[in-house]
Amino acid sequence: MMNSGIPIFPTMIPNTVNQLWFSVDEPKNEETELIQIESIHQNWLLTVVNKLNDKDFPVPIGKTATEVQEEDDEEDEEEEVNHSDDSETHDEEDDDVEMDVSNTFDQDSPISVSTR
Question: What is the pLDDT of residues 70-85, one digit of tens each?
Fold first, then answer.
């Protein structure tokens, strides 16, 4: 006797599909979505630049805002001094100096150096 719960032949009627599956891929305007994302990113970049220009950084623990400003001023002055020194004194840095190998060690040294 055959089991009546298992069909012998497959059914040719399609399964019913939940309509929620079809609402996932709704048509969208990609250009307007891209423009919106780009404007959000541009606004974020502008806020970052404004914070950098305003020096609106948090003050480190244990220091006051005036101490931080004084350190920044000192660093700026040091950079200006170093920049002016570089332009005056380092014009002839590329001169090569050759050394004589025989004069680089002490003749009275207890270590013997032999060259072959």
Answer: 777 777 777 777 766 5
